[in-house]
Design goal:
The complex is a heterodimer of chains A (449) and B (283). Chain A is α+β, with helices and mostly antiparallel strands. Chain A is built from 6 helices and 23 strands. Chain A has helices spanning 2-16, 134-177, 182-194, 300-307, 418-421, 423-443; strands at 30-40, 45-50, 56-60, 65-77, 82-93, 96-102, 105-121, 126-132, 215-220, 225-233, 244-249, 253-263, 271-273, 279-282, 288-299, 318-325, 330-335, 341-344, 346-352, 360-364, 372-377, 385-391, 397-407. In chain A, the strands form 3 sheets. In chain A, strands 1, 2, 3, 4, 5, 6, 7, 8, 9, 10 and 11 form an 11-stranded mixed sheet that branches. In chain A, helix 2 (134-177) packs antiparallel against helix 3. The longest helix of chain A is centred in the middle third of the chain and has 44 residues, at 134-177. Chain A is flat. The two termini of chain A are 62 Å apart. The radius of gyration of chain B is 20 Å and the shape is globular. The two termini of chain B are 18 Å apart. Classes of the chains: A alpha+beta (449), B mainly alpha (283). Chains A and B meet through strand 12, strand 14, helix 4, strand 23 and helix 5 of A and helix 2, strand 1, strand 2, helix 4 and helix 7 of B.
Chain lengths: 449, 283
Amino acid sequence: MRKSGVCVLFCLVLTILPVPGISSDVSEREEALIYSILAFNGRDYTKTFCREESRNIYLIAESDNYVILRKTLVYFWPLSGKWLTDTDILNVPFEGILEIWKGKKMIREIDLTQYALYSVEDEYEMSWRISVGSEAETVVREYRDSVESYRQALAEYEYKKAVIENTKREIAEKIARAQEDSEEAEEILDQLNELSPGEPPEEPDDYVMPPVRTVTGYHINLPSGEYRLRFRTSEGLIMQGSEKNLKVYSAETLLSAGFEIIPGDKWTSPVESNSPYSVIYVNGETDLYIQGFRQTAYNDFFHEKTVNSSGMGNPVLSRPVRVQQIPGLLLEIEKDGSPPDMIREQPFRVEQTEGGEYGYTIESAGQEEPNIIAFPIPLEPGDRAVTIRLKDKDGRSLKGGVRKIRVVTPSRRYHFLLIPAAVPLGIWGLVMVRRKIKRKDEWGLSKIP
Amino acid sequence: MKALLKMKIKETAYNPGFYITVTIALVLSHFLIEGFVLCVESSGFNYAATPLYGFIGRTLNGIFGPAFTDRVFAAGPFLFSSAVSFALCFLFLSIISIFRFCFEKSTGVIEFVCCGPVDIRRYGTAVFFRDCLFLGISSGGIIIYNLTSAAAANLVFGPGDLVFSLILMAAGIVFFLYGNLLSMLASTAASALLSYLGVFALFLMVLTAGYADAAGYMGNLFQNVSRFLQWFSPLFYMQSAVKAFFFLRPLNLVLSFLALSALGGGIYGAVRMAGRGKGRFAE
């Protein structure tokens, strides 16, 4: 008894001892030589960095990526499980030459370049663009000029408005004085109506994310393969710790069609269906709005490392990446038993419900600016299976553009399926009974009177 | 050999163990399918909706990553439920086989009483065929049960789920051959069982070695060793078959099956060689 008590105590101590070591505190900021990376992720750009301890940088082939070597502080943020940089306290970018090696041969020497990253609104969604060198400077300058002219126009408008307000006040006083003479008052009122500051100036809306400034970096655009990169200072010396393996990879599959499913009651949480063999299961409580998009797939491990150097992906699987919504599609809907119906995509607006319900409704946009352009799929209570097929404007089927939608009612009424699960035990019972009968026959026991 | 096979089949068929295991496997399958149905929301399947699937989803995400979890449940619950049910039946069959093989190898006389002197290689072959038969029966049961559940709950049990069951069966058969080989080589049941579980664990480690971005000399060494060992692992071919299926590459799928068959053939040859000169049970 005493022994077991000591054992339990020992186990408890062993369990408790490591507890203070397991802490969710933010790690101390450490000075590190890192590569800051602006990496193309298949659709847009991700800012990430390669830690001093990491050996590899992963980039997508035949795409524009930018890296820069800098000394900064890094720390681990336990809430997101990610390594982060603190460039406010220490940020020393290095200027020199970036060498790219393939095997034992240096294939490229890259100079520092200026670039500007910005996004514009296309017909369906935002698209990202990069301007390099003098073009970047022009884009940034033009944006700044347009902002500056907007500010000036706004200032003029505000000034005009203030002057008019002043004048109105004066006129109001005049009216008060001329109340006795109604003719003069009418004249003054006419003057008052004529006063208007005009239309306020329109804010420049060419960009969703404007090119505020140019950034410097080393431009990398390589075909797929394994490379090494290292940094040479302006003095011609190789920076210690700057050598990394550069893994440049291509998409694993060709572009195919994917679906984005927007449920009518949760338009902010759309779900993607990327694989042709996948099935869209819904509970049928709301209508669905479906968008067809072009997608490509990258190795999950490589892609995860591209967007987050400390992340982990699965090297065996591919990760589908949405490229862009496909314009001008048709959708064939086939509900079980009924003939297929072809529909066109429609513009919709999401309207906030008035009152304290904090809800919203999805309505046809009409002439207004739409929030989503999608195919509406109304689901009725009797629907069990719906098949949807994406077609281009000429009616040809798109690769990977077929999905099954199944309406499943979540309930615990499937307990009756436990009965067939017990069938093997029933079979064993039958086997035993048969065996007993056979034994009786073999031993002739059944013939005993 | 026929008499021996018949005896081995009867031995399993008259024991409740197999039936109980299949029932447990089907009950597990039921809870996984029902759990999946409960996770279906207006926007689709959300594994965080129930505690059971929340746990499963987090665990799979942690080990294999979100891309894997998404793939597993993309077409329904049947890939996962089949894998769980199958693993249970497979482990039961292989463990009892190894245990009995080694036990009877040391006792010997039992076989002599039932069907005369038995060559160890023939005994191994009979055990192997028995295992394959019962694995086929249990897989068939699982497939029928899944089809019934799919029809009842309006889920899709598609050709993919069927192909996956075949891949699992093929990998399981090769593992049976490994069990056979180790049963012949080991001197006691415990050592055979331990070495079998060790081989299984090693192949699992080899499978997951590729996931790690291990650094340094040890990391390189481990990855290189894994690259060599993977050719002997049924899990590696199973993984390539599943990948070929996910990517809709039928040729790769056939090649994976052929490679798995070749591995099975190789191990069978090793089993025959290991059995040579081991003599008869009754001797």
